[in-house]
Please model this.
Amino acid sequence: MFAYKRQEWRKHPALSFRSNVKHMFTGFGTAAVLFGIYWGLEYTYYTNLYKKDAEAEAAATAAAAAPQISSSSTAH
Model:
């Protein structure tokens, strides 16, 4: 009878493996979600930024390669 009372602490929920694992990484889930959102927004921003730079560079290259018609060389 007395041995049962002495061993009761072993079954306490605070000492269970599941409880220890659950509380081992407090805030990790929240941090992982916030980091994922940050990573996604940064990827989207830089992808669009580089796309705009590439389009602007292509337009500048095309404009530079196009033949220039000056007003002095045109026939009147």
Notes: The mean pLDDT is 78. The helical segments are 2-7, 17-24, 28-65. The radius of gyration is 34 Å.
